Amino acid sequence: QPSPDQTIGMGIRSYDPEYPYCPYPPSLLHIEELCDSIVRSHRDTSQFRLEELQALRWKLFSREEIHAYQSKSVDEMWQHCAVRLTEAVQYVVEFAKRIPGFRGLGQNDQITLLKTGSMEVVLVRMSRCFNTENSTVFFDGKFGSTELFKSLGCGDLMVAVFDFAHSMCALRLTEQQMALFCSLVLINPDRPCLEDRGRVHRMRRDLEVCLSHMLHRDNQESLQHKLYQKVSVLQSLCSLHVEKLHWFSQRYPLTVHSVFPPLYKELFTSDLPSVDSL
Ligand SMILES: CCS(=O)(=O)c1ccc(CNC(=O)N2CC3(CCCC3)c3nc(-c4c(OC)ncnc4C4CC4)ccc32)cc1
């Protein structure tokens, strides 16, 4: 279980093993090994197993419990969600570290990929915890609808997240397909300020071969372009999240500085003015 005050830098060591990506074109054996390793990493770091989430699908919050959430103050609810989001991100950091070659990247590039990609992976993963039959989502052990998050004061973000989750659920991805899609979202050579873009590009290329190999095996090649279309939606959702966080931190600077988890601040805030300058 990751510690609540862990930040990215603490979890990452960069060593330089024999680079596991063989020269192009990779052999079928290498591709299948890479697929298996990504699927295993996803399963071992998924926070909740799909079966667990499905077993809880009809465990709904009562009216009283919903009312209790709605009576929370804006900063209390944001703080609560920030802790939950940070927990989800910590599992994504673990997933990233197990992607073959990720630890072979320089520490700065590992942090850049996580800073820019971890929220996107959380959003993809979160689609597993939606029940599209009654538009509820898993939160704090039970399922509730968007009304649960009314006091966050960012209804448009929640509606956008729910819509995205619905569109992801419509693709009916297997856990293996989701695992590979998440690795592609993370290993993105177009992220700004990468130092060794070429190395990220080589990793990305092999992961793309893995995904098309898997979709071919599953006889679902049509999923490929649908998944790549999701990437732009993810990016707009993340900027909406950062916009909302900025709005929130303008109103509750002390909450963000003194109560939000360090990892959350490291990932989602640019350099907010330090407390003594407030
Ligand atoms: C991911 C691995 S998993 O095993 O599948 C998994 C693991 C834990 C949970 C518990 N739910 C949870 O943490 N939730 C649910 C929801 C999604 C949508 C509404 C409510 C949400 N939202 C936030 C949150 C934000 O909290 C501050 N702020 C902005 N955006 C978000 C959403 C992530 C987009 C932050 C936590 C959060 C669910 C699923």
Q: Tell me the strand order in the biggest sheet.
A: 1-2-3
Bound molecules: ligand 9GS
H and E string: HHHHHHEEEHHHHHH
Number of helices: 12
| Shape assignment | globular
Number of strands: 3
Structural class: mainly alpha
Please report the distance between the alpha carbons of the first and last residues: 35 Å
Low-confidence stretches: 15-19, 272-278
Mean pLDDT over the residues: 89
- What Rg do the Cα atoms give? 19 Å
Q: What is the share of helical residues?
A: 55-70%
Describe the model:
- The protein has a 3-stranded antiparallel sheet.
- The C terminus is likely disordered.
- Helix 2 packs across helix 8, helix 2 packs across helix 9 and helix 6 crosses helix 10.
- The chain is mainly alpha-helical and 278 residues long.
- Helix content is 62%, strand content 3%.
- The protein is built from 12 helices and 3 strands.
- Bound molecules: the ligand CCS(=O)(=O)c1ccc(CNC(=O)N2CC3(CCCC3)c3nc(-c4c(OC)ncnc4C4CC4)ccc32)cc1.
List the helices and strands and how they pair.
Layout: H1 8-11, H2 28-44, H3 50-55, H4 63-70, H5 74-97, H6 107-126, E1 130-131, E2 136-139, E3 142-144, H7 155-171, H8 175-186, H9 197-217, H10 223-251, H11 253-259, H12 262-268
Antiparallel strand pairs: 1-2, 2-3
Structural features:
278 residues; mainly alpha; 3-stranded antiparallel beta sheet; 12 helices; binds ligand 9GS
Summarize the structure.
By secondary structure, this protein is mainly alpha-helical. It has helices spanning 8-11, 28-44, 50-55, 63-70, 74-97, 107-126, 155-171, 175-186, 197-217, 223-251, 253-259, 262-268, and strands at 130-131, 136-139, 142-144. The ligand CCS(=O)(=O)c1ccc(CNC(=O)N2CC3(CCCC3)c3nc(-c4c(OC)ncnc4C4CC4)ccc32)cc1 binds next to α5, α6, β2 and α7.
